[in-house]
Amino acid sequence: MFDMTWTGRVRFGAGVSAQVGELLRSLGAERVVVVTDENMERLGTADRICAHLEAAEVHSCVFAGVEPEPSVETTDAVAELAREHDCQAVVGLGGGSCMDVAKAVSILITNQGSAAAYQGQGLVKVPGVPKVMIPTTAGTGSEVTSTAVLSRKGDGFKGSISDDRLRPDYSFLDPELTFTMPPKVTASTGMDALVHALEGYTGRQASPFSDLFAREALTRIGKWLRIATWNGKDLEARSEMLLASFYAGVTLANAGVGACHALAYPLGGSFGVGHGCCNALMLPYVVRYNVPARSDRYAQAAAWLGLGTEGWPDREAALACAEGLEDLVEDLSLPRKLSALKAGIEEKHFDALAEVALGMADFLENNPRPLDKKACIVLYKEAF
Ligand SMILES: [Fe+2]
């Protein structure tokens, strides 16, 4: 038995973001808020999207101040702006942070109070206004999922609003918008997508439905991530990676993630290391730890990633998967050791980091092999 969830409508292809105005107009929206960041403003992407909106007589107000680890406070401020301007729809333009804030703003326009009141599972009472996502990175999966991760400046708490009502209504996947991503962002967001697909495929909640998407994501990432990273203007590589991110997002939405995400989260929360970067770093160690529990699935993943292990015994192929991932991280010039991050992480922090990781109970329960605090600390030590 399995339960599958799908996303809203998705339009994919070079140049499709130009159609966003028409779509919003057809929904009857006359005023929308565009939620984005400084980068999109500086690169002129926000202006281009606003011009497409204006051409369809949809008026926009732009909030270009979303920060990398977006906060409840920022989200509340954007919701206030959207209410003041009587916005009837929300456009999330950028990476996962911008899309997460946009999704939360959509439900705050119609529900009272602060985003903090909705952090948790299924707390949203009234459906939000239509939300349209336009990702400009390829990896977070936020264009598909029904969660928004927000931190609180006051007490440093970082938690998700997780509710079906957060699921995007429309996503415009336009690979041309990912041309501007620098190599490091391409590499780290692409690795995040890889981890979504691999943790979903090897996790306890994997289903025949999520497996389909995991396979398609891993096959594409294995073939195209290096090319997209080092040849950013290659349209085919950018298209395949954007599609892979979408497929990995469907896997994530249906099958969840595992120990790699649990161990990566506190590195982002306490030391500000980028989400994809932490995941890429921790992944080979987590895979080696998990091999005894699901060598069959890691062996299959190795074949999909193009590691040439077809016909090998499962255990050897699964261990080759960990090695192949290390080579990939190296080829992408991402850090392979915590000590190389220059983020101030020291061995004395491992106990507290493991404590936070253990708090990510959903992730750990989905991991194929159980982890206790000692196992978390051992993995941090190996990765140091
Ligand atoms: Fe992730």
Automatic annotation (TrEMBL):
The keyword NAD applies. Coiled coil: none annotated. Residues 9-175 form the Alcohol dehydrogenase iron-type/glycerol dehydrogenase GldA domain. Keywords: NAD, Oxidoreductase. InterPro entries: ADH_Fe/GldA, ADH_Fe_C, ADH_Fe_CS, Alcohol_dehydrogenase_Fe. Belongs to the iron-containing alcohol dehydrogenase family. PROSITE patterns: ADH_IRON_1 (PS00913), ADH_IRON_2 (PS00060). This is Iron-containing alcohol dehydrogenase. Residues 186-384 form the Fe-containing alcohol dehydrogenase-like C-terminal domain. It comes from Aminomonas paucivorans DSM 12260. GO terms for molecular function: alcohol dehydrogenase (NAD+) activity; metal ion binding.
